[in-house]
Amino acid sequence: MINADKKKEMKNLSEMLLETRGLTKRYGDHKAVDSVSMHIKKGAIYGFIGRNGAGKTTCLKMISGLSRPTSGEIEIFGYKGKDLQKVRSRVGCLIEAPGLYGNMTAYENLNIKCKLFGIKKAGYIEEILKTVGLEHVGRKKTKHFSLGMKQRLGIGLALIGEPDLLVLDEPINGLDPQGIAEVRDTIQRLQKERNMTICISSHILEELSKIATDYGIIHNGSLLQELTREELMRRCSERMELTLADPKLAIPVLDAMGFTNYQVTDKEHIHIFERLNESAALNMELAKAGIPVKGLSITSEELETYFLNLTGGASHA
Ligand SMILES: Nc1ncnc2c1ncn2[C@@H]1O[C@H](COP(=O)(O)OP(=O)(O)OP(=O)(O)O)[C@@H](O)[C@H]1O
């Protein structure tokens, strides 16, 4: 008999499109990626966040088959080891700058890759140009494109062959606000219209917060945390922070007062995400129950502060 937890676990696994286990890349003595186990669900926009040098590109290169892991395993669409070759064509990637021919148009650049893939379908290139918002660029050579246009054409190139998983390494880096908005729109459209799963890296959490459904935070080669958008928003949302010698003792009091949206975050703290105006009443009830309160404050955190605190403070930026 399979219990409910096991069933849930099996369901979660079947929803997983990509999983790595202990993925490691060593350059000499230096571990650029250190035992990373990441999980990307089908249909997710997975924000892969880390400071410069954290190991994002190295990790994404291994996932895309551009670099060989020192150790560990990658499973995509249920395939791993040598069998991964069978599904490589279902992974499109844009790692670092897109390799464009500057003297050619967007259409011509796409056409070269279509020829390599043996794609001759009428209207195929026009469709991709439309998807990435470059349908009106005409005969303009790509060397005259803005950085945002180049990135979108890079995404267009990665779309050739209809991948189910798109891996984008810092596609927003260096873009102006309009360029950022355009790339974000393109990514959201791909997820909605083509039901694509997208892994996108950035060194700025805030930049992906409008689109990512899930996050992985990498630092010094290690994956520190994976969390959903809801979990992240919850961690950064306005809350009461209760500091106590033993949070467990306060739970019956919270329950008796009808609080339901709270979380014991460590051995000293409870975060409460509702009825923030009732902090005085809560304090009083805890005192009545003989539970000393060391601290009670209302606080919230900026997304970027959350990320910086997690990765060792702003001074390392
Ligand atoms: N080919 C290589 N040889 C030696 N060291 C490397 C190589 N590629 C990357 N590294 C090192 O591995 C670490 C991770 O680099 P990586 O490029 O993956 O980080 P990143 O998170 O993508 O950062 P950035 O955004 O700056 O590229 C860095 O310390 C980098 O210097």
- Within the CATH hierarchy, at the fold level, what is the topology of the largest domain? Rossmann fold
Relative helix content: 25-40%
Our measurement of the CA-to-CA distance between the termini, rounded to an integer number of angstroms, reads 51 Å
Radius of gyration: 23 Å
**Largest beta sheet: what is the strand line-up?**
7-8-9-4-10-11
Shape estimate: elongated
CATH superfamily of the largest domain: P-loop containing nucleotide triphosphate hydrolases
Number of helices: 11
Give the beta-strand count. Answer: 15
CATH architecture of the largest domain: 3-Layer(aba) Sandwich
In the CATH scheme, the class of the largest domain would be Alpha Beta
What fraction of the residues are assigned to beta strands by DSSP?
A: 25-35%
Low-confidence stretches: none
Characterize the largest beta sheet: strand count, sense, and whether it forms a barrel: 6 strands, mixed
Bound ligands, each once:
adenosine-5'-triphosphate
Which class best fits the helix and strand makeup? Answer: alpha/beta
Mean of all residue-level pLDDT scores: 89
Total domain count = 2
Succession of helices and strands: HEEEEHEEEHHHEHEHEEHEHEEHEH
How would you describe the overall organization of this protein?
The model has no long low-confidence stretch (mean pLDDT 89). This protein has helices at residues 4-15, 56-63, 106-117, 124-131, 147-159, 177-194, 205-208, 229-236, 247-256, 279-288, 303-310; strands at residues 16-27, 30-36, 39-41, 45-49, 71-76, 79-80, 91-94, 165-168, 197-202, 214-219, 222-228, 239-244, 262-264, 269-272, 293-299. By secondary structure, the protein is of the alpha/beta class. Strand 8, helix 6 and strand 9 (197-202) form a beta-alpha-beta unit. Helix 5 runs parallel beside helix 6 (177-194). The protein folds into two domains: 43-68 and 88-222, P-loop containing nucleotide triphosphate hydrolases (Rossmann fold, 3-Layer(aba) Sandwich), CATH 3.40.50.300; 238-299, Alpha-Beta Plaits. It has eleven helices and 15 strands. Strands 7-8-9-4-10-11 form a six-stranded mixed beta sheet, with helices on both faces. Strands 1, 2, 3, 5 and 6 form a five-stranded antiparallel beta sheet that branches. The protein binds adenosine-5'-triphosphate. Adenosine-5'-triphosphate binds at residues 27, 32, 50, 52-58, 170, 203.
